[in-house]
Write a structure and sequence with these properties.
3-stranded antiparallel β-sheet; globular
Length: 400
């Protein structure tokens, strides 16, 4: 199977696995309620994947302004008490009856698309595009105000992935990256509850009855799973882990499936990350490369923070595990990302298959146009281009 097909198969397998783990985390208290809703989320996510894979990735240029505007308005509206729903001190959701919608999840997509479209048009070696960067900062700030520090970090990570794959001036990228890291660190230490989370990460056992309770319980659950685990559905008997169906679902995986289960899950996410970056390297244009790198970075960083927080390796940031955790908006956005990666890989393969045919046709024309007994002289620039992989259309390379 092609790499892109394996990418979708692994993502779908993780999603079905997530159904099992969500049911295991909720069945004792809620029966099949969350399992049914989760299957509905998965169905919508697969439809979103099918739509995204049939959209030529350069066509997102037309969609991006509208998507950005809708996300921007949604992030503003969700802050109003009469519109947004507050849970745990954060106002992040629209209550739509049986479902809820989290606009911050779509902000991750909007940022990656906006920056990818902008840097694809910028000449190589140019500076950062001002207005797109301002637009990214605006979405980042609105997500932070909810407050949702975890998602704002993923927004910044997706933007960093796009800029890393671009052809912008290296000095500007280093300066902007350093400034972003300093700003995120400052925001973390200026807010008391974020500062407490970081200090708790340094020594969670000293506050195991308070702010370190969730992290300590997660590590105890993982340790209880040992190598082979207690078995699916057998978790939670002696260890209660808060938010086991969302932020801490990896602790439940460790308890029920043990070290072997954790290694398989980490391996699956490792494959998704490597496949995404491979698609970025083989992308047919700057825009395709930036899109694939941004989406892959988004998924990889979110996975790293979720798994790391469950094991006490990174501070708790309240991020879901892609495809696995309960959360409809997150599942839909993740499948859209896989659909875009799928289409970039497909378009890249078509370009690579078309190049040899064009080269053979041009070589045949060149031989027939030469004089009697002498082949036509080829310009040195043409020889250099062919040594470097064949002739290239600059409009295609820049995503046009």
């Amino acid at each position: 199977m092609a790499l892109r097909t394996n990418l979708f198969v692994v993502a779908l397998a993780l999603a079905f696995f997530g159904n099992v783990m969500v049911y295991s985390a909720t069945s004792k208290e809620y029966g099949t309620h969350y399992l049914i809703v989760r299957f509905a989320h998965l169905a919508v996510g697969v439809v979103a994947f099918l739509v995204a894979k049939h959209v030529r990735y350069t066509s997102w240029r037309k969609v991006t302004p509208g998507l950005y505007f809708v996300v921007l308005v949604s992030l503003v509206l969700v802050l109003f008490p009469s519109i947004g729903t507050e849970v745990g001190g954060s106002r992040r959701w629209f209550d739509l009856g049986p479902f809820s919608l989290q606009p911050a999840e779509f902000a991750k997509l909007a940022v990656i698309l906006l920056l990818s479209c902008a840097v694809a048009k910028a000449p190589p070696g140019s500076g950062l595009p001002l207005w797109p960067v301002v637009g990214v900062g605006l979405l980042f700030g609105l997500v932070l105000v909810e407050p949702d520090f975890g998602t704002s970090v993923i927004v910044a990570a997706g933007a960093a992935g796009v800029l890393w794959a671009s052809e912008l001036r290296t000095r500007d990228l280093l300066l902007s990256g350093s400034a972003a890291l300093v700003a995120i660190a400052g925001m973390m230490f200026l807010e008391p509850y974020r500062r407490d989370r970081f200090l708790t990460f340094l020594d969670p056992w000293s506050v195991s009855d308070g702010s370190g309770y969730q992290t300590v319980q997660s590590m105890v659950a993982i340790k209880a799973g040992s190598v082979f685990g207690a078995g699916t559905g057998a978790g939670g008997g002696g260890v209660i882990v808060p938010e086991a169906r969302t932020d801490m679902i990896f602790a439940l995986i460790g308890e029920e499936l043990g070290l072997l289960g954790m290694v398989v899950v980490i391996g699956a996410f490792g494959f998704l990350a490597l496949a995404g970056f491979k698609i970025a390297l083989d992308a047919p244009s700057v825009m395709g490369r930036c899109l694939a790198a941004g989406l892959s970075t988004m998924l990889a960083v979110q996975t790293t923070f979720n798994i790391g927080a469950a094991m006490g390796a990174v501070p708790l940031a309240g991020m879901t595990l892609p495809f696995v955790s309960y959360g409809g908006t997150s599942v839909i956005v993740c499948f859209v990302a896989i659909g875009i990666l799928y289409r970039i890989s497909e378009d890249g393969e078509r370009v690579r298959e078309a190049k040899p045919k064009k080269t053979r046709t041009r070589s045949k024309k060149a031989r027939t146009s030469g004089g009697a007994g002498e082949p036509p002289e080829r310009p040195a620039s043409l020889d250099r281009r062919r040594r470097n992989g064949g002739t290239r259309d600059t409009r295609t390379l820049r995503g046009g």
